[in-house]
Structure formats: C-alpha cells, structure tokens
Write a structure and sequence with these properties.
The chain has 140 residues and is mainly β. The chain is 0% helix and 35% strand. It has a single domain, classed as Neuraminidase (6 Propeller), CATH 2.120.10. The radius of gyration is 15 Å and the shape is globular.
Length: 140
C-alpha cells in the first residue's frame, strides 16, 4: 500500500520543521509543523505512523506545549524530551516531556542556564538524563 492510498484526512499534510521519533511501540511519531504558507498548526496532537499496517493515526496530546517548529525530540525510555524550537515570532529555550504511552505532556525545569535554540540537534548520551542527558547544537 502506498501513501497515496491512505485517505488525506488521516495522514499529515506536507510539512517541515517537524521531528520524527521512533517510539517504543514501533510507530513513528511526527511532532510539530510548518507548511508552505508558514502556518503553524497541529499543536494539540501528534501523527503516528504504523509501518507494518501502513496507517496514520492522529493522536491528541494532553497539555501540549506552545506550538513550535525547529525543535528537537529525544527519546529516553517511554518519554520524548522536546527542547527549543520557534513559533516564528519567538525562539524557545524550554523543555517538555511527552509520555508516549499516555500522551500527557508537561514542562520540566532546566537546572542549567537556559539557552534558546531552534533548528538544532539533540542526542542522548548514556542512560542518565540528569548527568549528561542531551547535548544541543545549532542556531538561535
């Protein structure tokens, strides 16, 4: 089944500035969007892609962060850490954690100096989030 056979109402529109994270259940989670018209939307849900059944599912987020693009999304266990990004008017330096089993999102406090970043990368280093969890590099 090609993507063209999936009804347009069930799959995400064309986008950029998003993240795609492989989550523990084997699905690909798409978070964030900016389209060709510069419109940010999809702020209260994620799209999940099941590569076995070739299906998209639109899944709501409880307590979503402010809409953004150019953020990073780093998986650790069953949680995705979303850092930074931009609304188009503001660049963020905040971090939110999304539990991919409950899809509850909450803002967490960053103990080090808060630096704003967008269009950067983040990588999990080791398995202790507090010790050396995420290194971010990129533009402001």
């Amino acid at each position: 089944m090609s993507d063209a056979k999936i009804p347009k109402t069930e799959r995400p529109m064309g986008r950029w500035g998003h993240t795609a994270t492989l989550i523990p259940n084997g699905q690909l989670m798409i978070f964030g969007v900016q389209n060709a018209h510069g419109v940010l939307n999809d702020d209260n849900h994620v799209f999940l892609y099941d590569s076995i059944n070739k299906t998209w599912t639109k899944h709501p987020i409880i307590s979503p962060p402010p809409r953004r693009v150019g953020h990073s999304a780093t998986l650790k266990g069953k949680r995705v850490f979303v850092f930074g990004g931009s609304s188009g008017k503001k660049t963020y330096g905040d971090m939110h954690v999304l539990d991919v089993e409950t899809f509850i999102c909450s803002r967490i406090t960053i103990l080090s100096k808060q630096v704003v970043r967008s269009y950067h990368t983040a990588t999990l280093v080791g398995d202790k989030y507090v010790k050396s969890p995420i290194l971010g590099f990129g533009a402001e």
